[in-house]
Structures are given as C-alpha cells and as structure tokens.
Amino acid sequence: MNTTPARDALCIVWSSPDPEVADNLAFMYAQNALNKSWWKQVRLIIWGPSAALAARDEHIRTRLEEMMADGVEVWACRACAENYSVVGKLESLGANVLYVGEPFTEMLKSGWMQLTF
Known about the structure:
Blueprint: E1 9-14, H1 19-35, E2 41-46, H2 50-56, H3 58-70, E3 73-77, H4 78-83, H5 87-93, E4 96-98, H6 101-109, E5 113-116
Parallel strand pairs: 1-2, 1-5, 2-3, 3-4
Helix pairs in contact: 1-3, 2-3
Protein name: DsrE family protein
Organism: Pseudodesulfovibrio karagichevae
InterPro entries: DsrEFH-like
C-alpha cells in the first residue's frame, strides 16, 4: 500500500501525440521531479493519443523504460490502449494498463497534484 501523502504526490497526464511534448516536457519534468526529490511520488498516465505514440516510437519507449527504472510509475488507460490496439505493446513495456477513470478521480479527490500535457 502506498503511504505517500497526497501533497507529495504528482500525477502527470500525458495525452499529446507529439514526441517533442513527450520528450522535452512531460518526460523531462517527470524524471527530474522524482530524481531531484521535488515530489516523493510521480505517476505518469498515458491517456488518449499518446498511447499510440508510446507503442510505436522506440525512442519514446526507451525514455519510458528509463523513467520506470528511476521509479516513475507509468500507467496507461486500458480503454485508449484497446481503441488504438496497443494493449500488448504497453504491457510489454511494463506500464500498468488499467481503466484509469476511477483511480484517477480518487487521486484527485485525495489531493494529488496534477499536470496535463
């Protein structure tokens, strides 16, 4: 069970299909936020069109693997992954592929900070 107080937890919703937004904004902040202890817990959610990019772009996949190795939690919206036919690719990457609507709502209600890219 996670015991990080919500005020020390950040959720980044990554929905943009633009690899520049991923690499030079969302991923850069997520990795630095955890590595530099700006936040105690960082969770990146792959949601919407970013699912297709995460499945097909090797550089993006490598960056996601690096972030996960550093401790960034990576979730992916199962409904989106199903819509883009990439469930297996995201699971093989190591992302937690789940229906995120309800857990994301609970995160927000419990006080998690949230950024969207």
